[in-house]
Design a protein that fits this description.
Layout lengths: L1 H24 L39 H10 L4 E6 L6 E5 L23 E2 L12 E5 L18 H6 L2 E5 L4 E13 L12 H13 L15 E7 L6 E10 L2
Parallel strand pairs: 4-7
Antiparallel strand pairs: 1-2, 1-5, 3-4, 5-6, 6-8, 7-8
Length: 250
């Protein structure tokens, strides 16, 4: 009896195992991608920005031969210009340094000299030539040198006969038309080189024109640039002769 039960149990086990294997082998296999060996996704290509044409470098400007020769002759690189008033004895190099004192009592050789030199205000820039008001100073020498001839502009016939100023800068030759002459106390400030407001500057140059001892037919504009020659008046002390001219854009 026991042997029959064992054979029965064995037969049932064999049938169950066969049924399980039949079910197992009847399923479809499913492929699961292996992410560990996936090809890396390529980075998006970043094209370089298109080349743009850069601004061409400005060509270096050539200094005017006259200025270069004067610098070499005097061995003085403070020389920044040359001023001439046709019809007068005014015809001089113009120097500039970091103050308005040195060239009052030194010549272009840097030697002590009471006649000084003709010099540009230290706040001006003749290289750029962009200032509203360019100021040039010189002594009124009794010997007739430097800016002595400025005093003659008080005569109408002299004023009307000598109407312009030539000024060589380091890079260009400029012409300025004279529109005003007057003498004034130093309490009147005409030494501002640049104005923040064009209306203020226009009022200033109109005032200079109104102060003139003589009239001209020159019409001024807010965009103008002016040149002032300043020297001591004959009565000396705190009075000055002032010649004012407008830059002519050729």
């Amino acid at each position: 009896m026991f042997r029959k039960l064992m054979w029965g149990f064995f037969f049932i086990s064999i049938v169950a195992l066969g049924f399980w294997m039949f079910n197992y082998l009847s399923y479809e296999s499913i492929e699961v991608p292996d992410t560990a060996i996936r090809e890396p996704r390529p980075e998006p290509s970043i094209a370089p920005p298109p080349e743009t044409e850069s601004e061409p470098e400005p060509e270096p400007r050539t200094m005017r031969p006259r200025i270069a020769e004067l610098r070499e002759y005097y061995d003085n690189h403070d020389i920044v210009g040359f001023i001439e008033v046709p019809g007068t004895s005014i015809s001089y190099p113009v120097a500039q340094t970091g103050n308005n004192e040195f060239y009052l009592y030194h010549n272009l050789h840097w030697r002590r000299d009471n006649a000084g030199a003709i010099f540009l205000d230290y706040e001006n820039d003749l290289y750029a030539l962009a200032d509203d008001n360019t100021l040039i100073y010189g002594h009124n020498m009794r010997a007739g040198t430097k800016f002595h001839n400025v005093r003659h502009f008080h005569r109408a016939e002299f004023f009307n006969a000598n109407t312009y100023i030539l000024l060589d800068t380091p890079y260009e030759e400029t012409v300025w038309s004279i529109f005003s002459f007057f003498d004034t106390h130093i309490n009147f400030c005409y030494l501002t080189t640049n104005f923040y407001d064009r209306d203020e500057f226009f009022e200033f140059i109109l005032l200079l024109q109104q102060m003139s001892l003589h009239e001209t037919d020159i019409v001024l504009h807010p965009s103008d640039q002016i040149l002032i020659l300043s020297t001591c008046a004959s009565r000396g002390g705190d009075y000055r002769y002032v010649v004012v001219a407008r830059l002519d854009r050729l």
